[in-house]
Amino acid sequence: MIKIGDYNNLCVKRKTDFGYFLDGKTDNSKDDILLHKKLANKNKLEIGDFVNAFIYIDSEGRKTATLIPPKAKVNEINYLKVVAHTKIGSFIDVGLQKDILVPFKAKTYDIEKGNRYLFYIYLDKTGRLAATTDIDPYLETNHNYKIGDTVSGIVYSFQTNNSANVCVDKKYVGVILHNEYFTKLKEGDILEELKVIKIYEDGKLGLTPRKERKEELDNLEVSILSYLEGNDNFMRFNDKTSPEEIETVFNTSKKNFKRALGVLMKKDIIYQDENGTYKK
């Protein structure tokens, strides 16, 4: 049986001027599958050779073979580029001659042409490859990560409280709680150097993009001083400023901001009054 959207080890049954016909495994030569020369990946084949060919349904509804590895196959999650929007949905590039449809009902958020997102690849009712942004049901939790490990991941959705759901290694499910990040995130963002800070009972990874406290404070101190020096050694922010303003300007929590101000005051570099903060 031929596996559509996957690799099949098939025998070359016939040769033509324009390509090769591979065994369709039905004992009927009418079902043999065309491997066009331009999709043979520069391989010169002979009758009787076996090839590991990727099989998919082309725009004419026919099984087609290629030896050029696609960017994704069926039942896989991969990070792929949106190349078009049409009346029936969006299309993504998977490295085949035919782009893959993302039906309207298979989109869980707005996707922009030219951007990359995580998609799960499946076969639609006609046997053609299709894709969805709803990858959550296909993610796993049987990983070997430990607390303290560093991973990378891609944002794929948000919870109602703005905690970010992150896919690690295009396979595992993780979450960054809303109070663990201070920069704006969106679906498709790649996040490097995430630290595992918790492993939930169901195996989900608790992640943070934040650095070790000392490094984070050192960086925040530099940011505060740079802000002061760029504004005539004054800023209207002090330890009475609202958390929202601090997050907007310095991408940090009020707790860390106050702690950094305290360190700089102990170093006798800054001082505060009711109007704001000054650099000495």
Quick rundown:
The protein is mainly β and 280 residues long. Helix content is 14%, strand content 38%. A hairpin with a 2-residue loop joins strand 17 and strand 18.
Number of domains: 4
Segments where pLDDT lies below 50 for 5+ residues?
none
* Portion in strands: 35-45%
Q: First CA to last CA: what distance?
A: 78 Å
CATH topology (level 3) name of the largest domain? OB fold (Dihydrolipoamide Acetyltransferase, E2P)
The whole-angstrom Rg is 27 Å
CATH C-level category of the largest domain? Mainly Beta
Largest sheet: 5 strands, mixed, barrel
Number of distinct helices: 3
**What's the total number of strands?**
18
Structural class by secondary-structure content: mainly beta
Query: Level of helix content?
Result: 10-25%
- CATH architecture classification name of the largest domain: Beta Barrel
* Silhouette: elongated
* Order of strands, widest sheet: 1-2-3-5-4
Could you explain how this protein is built, in words?
The chain has 280 residues and is mainly beta. 14% of the residues lie in helices and 38% in strands. It has helices at residues 213-229, 243-250, 254-266, and strands spanning 6-16, 19-22, 33-36, 50-57, 63-66, 77-86, 89-93, 100-103, 116-123, 129-132, 150-158, 164-168, 172-176, 190-199, 205-208, 234-235, 270-273, 276-279. The longest helix has 17 residues, at 213-229. It starts with 5 loop residues before the first strand and ends with a strand. The mean pLDDT is 91.
